[in-house]
From TrEMBL:
Keywords: Membrane, Transmembrane, Transmembrane helix. The chain crosses the membrane at residues 12-33, 45-70, 82-100, 106-132, 139-158, 164-187, 221-242, 248-270, 282-298, 304-320, 341-360, 366-386. Residues 16-390 form the Major facilitator superfamily (MFS) profile domain. The keyword Transmembrane helix applies. SUPFAM superfamilies: MFS general substrate transporter. It holds the Pfam family MFS_1. Signal peptide: none annotated. It comes from the Bacteria. This is MFS transporter.
Amino acid sequence: MHAPTGTRGTAIDNGLLAILAIAAGLTVANNYYNQAMLGLLAHQFSLSAGTVSALPVVTQLGNVVGILFLAPLGDRLERRSLILATMAALVVVLVVAALAPGFSWLVVAGIGIGLFATVTQQIVPMAVHLAAPHERGRVLGIVTGGILVGILLARTVSGFISDIWGWQAVFATAAALMLATGAALAWRLPRVEPVTDLSYGRLLGSLWTLLRMHRVLRQAIVVQALIFAAFIGFWSTLALAFDAAPYHFGATAVGLMALVGVAGALAAPLAGRFADQRGPDVIVSIGAGLVVAAFAIFGLFQGSLAAMIVGVLILDLAVQSSQVANQARIHALDPTARSRLNTIFMATMILGGACGSGLAGLAFSAWGWSGTCLFGAVSAAAALLMSRRC
């Protein structure tokens, strides 16, 4: 039986850290499974592409709502119980999705999936809380590495399962994975008592107070939003680029390119260790600079698959490294507000990604792949300049 724990002063157990990283990757993947099955859904329910695309949209909207209104509760409620309750709700909505008799039911379930998949953003502050101060960068690198791997592989796994067994099997498999993950977390997670007694209304109101108080927080969210805008802009237009000359690839190629990106994500924990040793500020700037370099490679060597692979490796490593370093910076600001600090960081990062997807799409429509590369380079260059401001 686990005893209540306050601020930890010892190194986190490697077994527990592995469970947290895997749980973070598996939970965040639920937001992206439906993107690979849209063609199947359109065919089965006789829907237009515009109508069926409502499913990933409402899932992401549910995710943003969850980040803003559920994730801050990690500071107010006992963390282990909150994580397990959210996991149980996620299992329920995934089962509803698997049994959905029509597309409307699936949309409702999609909202719930996005809402409760924000358990990922409860796991991250939990990992930081359990880590000793000298290892927070390493711990964040491993856990957020799990998150990026989950995001990158979700579409590949979903596409494979849905092609063979149907879209219902994807949600049924996800429900089973969440049930197993919840059991593992119940087994290993210690109790972590609340760090504040603020009412729910005051808890939400304090988000603005924290943003006003901490210049480092303001800088970190702007830098990461710009970097993530470039990142999502790339991935949201890659399928369009692969469909055109000189590639003429299908959707499978995008999934395979995501596998390449996993290699970059797995290297990112090294950046976390470096942040522990040298400080996170330099990692943020290096990450932003590498994103600029990646888009330079994409733009200067258009048509080269080898250059695309090298650029993806650099891009994913750079984005993950900058996120780890920026999160290390903000989690050090106030130990009593880590869930709320993470809420602000993730909400603005997702907003940056949404803007990046739209702007990169417009750039691609106007100037093709060169437009995407220009947008990504400019966004990352702005992040680099912001990261160097004192």
